[in-house]
Amino acid sequence: MKSRRDFGKIGLPKGHAYPQLAYHPPTGFVIVHTKPVESPLPCRRLSLKRVKGTRYRPIADFPPSISVKKFLLHPRLPLLYFITYVWSEHVNGPVGGDWDALYCFNLNTRKTKIVARRGELVLPDGYRRAWLCELLSASADGKTLFCKAGFHNGEPVHYCLSKFSIVDRTITIIAKLKTPFS
Predict the structure, then answer these.
(1) Can you tell me whether residue 31 is helix, strand or coil?
(2) Of 5, 30, 48, 84, most Cβ neighbours within 10 A?
(3) What is the pTM (predicted TM-score) of this model?
(4) How far apart (Å, rounded) are the C-alpha atoms in residues 60 and 103?
(5) Is 175 exposed, middle or buried (0-12, 13-18, 19+ CB in 10 A)?
(6) Would strands 45-50 and 29-36 be described as parallel, antiparallel, or unpaired?
(7) How does pLDDT run across 117-147, given as a tens digit for each residue?
(8) In the β-sheet with 95-106, what is the strand arrangement from edge to edge?
(9) What is the radius of gyration, based on Cα positions, of the chain?
(10) Would you say the C-alpha torsion 46, 98, 37, 18 has a positive or negative sign?
(11) Separation of CA 158 from chain center
């Protein structure tokens, strides 16, 4: 397929397509979120280039089992936050995934840091486990993220609009959602 060869020529990961495009006006970076054309694992990746650049560069180098699920660009600061999930193939079943980590990539320095991993979130009372599902917005100073998160304390899982502090990894429930999508 010609489009796959073209994607490789501009620096996107081999065999990846279907880019989701984002633009960060303060830095002039274009970010693409791609996924493999053929793979049982999601293996989604982030790449970036300057708006007038000719080649994309990967934002991080992950093994195939790690996939970038969601990302968020800070509107003013040179920060790109992203959530990764770890995926595995089951012998006689579907592919399964679990939250891995939250990262922050500095667009100016091109340095990535881990903000929080599975098991490191400071949870509200009454919950044993939580994970980040989707990043919605960031505070002006970049130290707080608003997100959709899953909370577990037995059955059922509660999906909530939440506030996450990057400083101390505390996650606070703003409101419980009736479904994972509302």
Answers:
(1) strand
(2) 84
(3) 0.89
(4) 10
(5) exposed
(6) antiparallel
(7) 999 999 999 999 999 999 999 999 999 999 9
(8) 66-73, 79-89, 95-106, 111-117
(9) 17
(10) negative
(11) 20
